Amino acid sequence: MHQTRDMRLVTIDDVRAAAARIRGNVVRTPLLPAAWGGDAERPLWVKPESLQPIGAFKVRGAFNAIAAATAGPAAPTDVVAYSSGNHAQAVAYAAAAYGLRAHIVMPEETPEVKVAATRDHGARVVLCGAGQRESVAAQIVAETGGTLIPPFDHRDVIAGQGTIGLEIAEDLPSVRTVLVPVSGGGLASGTGVAIRALCPRAEVFGVEPELAADTAEGLRRGHRADWSVADRNRTIADGLRSQPSELTFAHLQQVLDGIITVSEDEIRSAVREFAYRAHLVSEPSGAVALAALRRGGTPPGETVVILSGGNIEPVMLRQILAE
Predict the structure, then answer these.
(1) In the chain, is it the N or the C terminus that has fewer CB atoms within a 10 Å radius of its CB?
(2) Coiled-coil region(s) at which residues (predicted)?
(3) Same domain? 144 vs 161
């Protein structure tokens, strides 16, 4: 993976180009009015990315990156990815659509529902120990000559995720606040780029678990903070255990108005609220934006929470709903 890094920030033109590339392969998710969750001061809307074919927003970035990689004369026959789950499924799904072989590296602690779903899309899954994803993926790239599709550290991936912000801006030009989960930062980076460009009066807040709040610390300090894998793995939100890359952190510094951290109890409560009030299934990682809204302190006005994914182990969902 010793490749020249493209550190240019993504632009709204990049996001628009991504929207055109992926239009036939992803769901343009609705912006759902949530009368159950807002009030006169803060009308609430939910962007349910759990309705995507693989149950999460990651399909947008995967399709954009693979579409871009296959557009030239040196189109790959193999793609490689490393992921705790949703990006894995997304790359496997997109690779199958393009007739490519997918090799996906996943940590051993990945929920079985995500491992099985990735294999169901025809991918070869390689399990690895904690903190070894990138090195194992590098070995597979060397063995196969495949193209690496990283989960967030790639301009095409960021631009693809940014199509969520583009759709929010088109559907709700009056939006005042957007709450978006933060892990590696691709979703928040791309969404923030689109909202900044199209809805300059709106504020964008990242949300992460208190037990994996490396981005919050990094933004306070002005440089990336390094939390151990063991520390980040404490959170129930398994999709939010990654840390921003140099590229995504540079975006987050530009596009976020702030970051909100939420507790494990608040995350579980938000999963229940989505299920009982919105009739939507959310994984813990997907529920943090609603948890942040419930914590309070966001500006008045039209508010959008991004439900980023719904791939949750059935046993865990039953346990949370029974609490």
Answers:
(1) C
(2) none
(3) no
**CB-side neighbour CA atoms (13 Å) of 6:** 9
Q: How many domains does the chain have?
A: 2
Q: Give the Cβ contact number of residue 226 at 10 Å.
A: 10
Q: What is the CATH number of the domain that holds 23?
A: 3.40.50.1100
Query: What pLDDT shows up at residue 220?
Result: 95
DSSP assignments along 44-71, one per residue: EEEEEGGGSTTSBTHHHHHHHHHHHHTS
Is there a single domain that holds both residue 188 and residue 308?
A: yes
pTM of the model: 0.93
Model pLDDT for residues 301-313, shown as the tens digit of each residue: 999 999 999 989 8
Catalytically annotated residue among 47, 50, 58, 285: 58
Q: Looking at 129, 152, 175, which one is the last position of a domain?
A: 152
* 289 has pLDDT over 80: yes
Express each pLDDT in 201-225 by its tens digit: 999 999 999 999 999 999 999 999 9
In 163-314 the beta strands, taken as DSSP E runs, fall at 177-181, 203-209, 258-262, 303-307
Domain that holds residue 87: 59-152
**For residue 235, what are its two tokens?**
């959170």
| Tens-digit pLDDT profile for residues 107-128 | 887 778 778 888 999 999 999 9
Are residues 266 and 190 both part of a single domain?
Answer: yes
Of the listed 183, 189, 242, 308, which one is catalytic? 308
CA distances from 298 to 41, 107, 179, 216, 262 (A): 11, 35, 9, 16, 14
Residues 74 and 163 in one domain: no
| Domain boundary, last residue among 111, 127, 152 | 152
Measure the CA–CA gap between 226 and 231, rounded to whole angstroms.
Answer: 10
- Residue 58 designated active-site: yes
Active site (annotated) includes residue 47: no
Q: Is residue 1 one of the residues assigned to a domain?
A: no
